[in-house]
């Protein structure tokens, strides 16, 4: 059976939504179900958890052994390199936004992270010096608000992308939180229900 555009336009909105849901369920495939991807996912999880376990005693060790004062070489090159990385992140994000590319979300998250790091190191490394008040003001007025703006904008873009995909898949109601949506699919594999939604309780 074939439908023309006119046939689809004559459908009720609920009928079009049901058709889109049925097509989405047929087309949705979860790449993580691929055996090769499952192996990589398990390896990534193991590596991430292992890094967390290793970092806890390492942080305790550093807190107990690092000196309160330390003279570092290449101070100028370190901060210049960091600012160059921040400039590259800002410029790349701006270009991605101008081009309306999804990679802008990555750029925003990277930029916000670098801004928070910049504020942290500026404040902590100037502690007790004449530059400390200026570092605090710069962090509170400039770096941290800008970082929050970039993070908020990235979150909004992700939410908008999910919202549009949700609608175009024929799903109804309010989409779930980002923390509950599966990677790559809005339909739970083999369950035929929206990702992140618990099944309706049976009467």
UniProtKB/TrEMBL annotation:
This is Uncharacterized protein. Keywords: Membrane, Transmembrane, Transmembrane helix. It comes from Actinoallomurus oryzae. The chain crosses the membrane at residues 43-64, 76-98, 103-121, 133-154.
